[in-house]
């Protein structure tokens, strides 16, 4: 009972914080076109993968709450409820790899040159706490989820298909925005030649697949032994 209560509390807080970050970013972080031309360009907030990811995290933790009440958090349930199946697939395919992808690439580029991802001119419009909610807490909460709740990973092929459909969709969307506005969503695209841009996309796609694999390995390290123990049926005593 205590474990279930803690899970409900964690999932609810995570869901609320990401839902609030989406609401606040959409409603209040209005950047004038004179400060950042991309912010007034075609697509609105939906231009940014960070915004997509924050929505995905809010949806995922809402699924967790539904699973807490109407599904199960057992390690290896014999009959897996629908909410548990959806939650497990969503976390493996979207929530974990996407959160780690956004967080690692954002902070990695920030360490190289912050002007490539979050220019200083945006500081008055994009508060630090919101930055950490959308670029730091996404990684913290998805890793905590790995430790506190078990999941059944989908077949790797099915997971990769779901992940790469999402990544390809965003890649096409980026080019639609460029076609409509003649500006790239991220300034780093401006400084790369076409061959380097293609190589950059290939590396990022490979990196996202690697993160999916890391999530699978991480889940096995945390829960593998426990799952095997749970799946071992007790031996029946032979009748004399």
Give an account of the 3D structure:
There is one protein chain. 24% of the residues are buried. The protein has one domain. The protein has 7 helices and no strands. It has helices spanning 2-28, 49-70, 82-113, 128-135, 137-148, 156-181, 194-231. With 240 residues, the chain is mainly alpha-helical. The radius of gyration is 20 Å and the shape is globular.
What is the C-alpha radius of gyration, as a whole number of Å? 20 Å
Major sheet details: none
In the residues, how many domains can be counted?
A: 1
End-to-end CA span: 40 Å
The DSSP helix count reads 7
Question: Level of helix content?
Answer: 55-70%
Oligomer: single chain
Strand content: under 5%
Q: Strand pairing plus helix content: what structural class?
A: mainly alpha
Strand segment tally? 0
Average of per-residue pLDDT values: 91
Q: What pattern of helices and strands is seen along the backbone?
A: HHHHHHH
Name the poorly predicted regions: none
The dominant shape is globular
């Amino acid at each position: 009972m205590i474990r279930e209560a803690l899970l409900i509390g964690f999932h609810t807080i995570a869901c609320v914080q990401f839902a609030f970050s989406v609401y606040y970013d959409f409603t209040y972080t209005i950047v004038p076109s004179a400060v950042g031309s991309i912010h007034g360009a075609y697509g609105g907030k939906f231009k940014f993968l960070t915004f997509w990811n924050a929505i995905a995290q809010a949806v995922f933790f809402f699924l967790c709450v539904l699973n807490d009440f109407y599904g199960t958090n057992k390690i290896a349930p014999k009959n897996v409820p629908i909410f548990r199946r959806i939650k497990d697939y969503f976390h493996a395919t979207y929530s974990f790899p996407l959160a780690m992808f956004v967080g690692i690439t954002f902070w990695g580029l920030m360490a190289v040159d912050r002007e490539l991802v979050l220019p200083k001119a945006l500081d008055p419009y994009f508060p630090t706490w919101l930055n950490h909610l959308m670029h730091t807490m996404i990684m913290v909460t998805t890793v905590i989820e790995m430790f506190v709740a078990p999941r059944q990973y989908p077949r790797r092929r099915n997971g990769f298909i779901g992940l790469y459909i999402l990544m390809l969709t965003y890649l096409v969307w980026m080019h639609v925005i460029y076609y409509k506005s003649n500006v790239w969503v991220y300034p780093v695209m401006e400084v790369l030649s076409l061959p380097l841009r293609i190589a950059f996309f290939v590396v990022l796609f490979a990196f996202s697949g690697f993160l999916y694999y890391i999530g699978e390995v991480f889940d096995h390290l945390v829960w593998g032994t426990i799952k095997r123990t749970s799946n071992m049926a007790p031996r029946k005593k032979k009748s004399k």
